[in-house]
Amino acid sequence: MGITSEGKVFANEIILKIIMNINKYLINNLTIIFLLQIFYEGEGGN
Known about the structure:
This protein has one domain (about 5-40). About 75% of the residues lie in helices and about 0% in strands. It has helices spanning about 5-25, 30-40.
């Protein structure tokens, strides 16, 4: 089966921390979208 609810919450916390760190360095939002896309494709999304 997919990842557990706890795993998803943990992953979401990591994503939020990464996004906040990226925003500190003022990298543009397309980079964030690109990283999220990699994460979800790596998880086996579509």
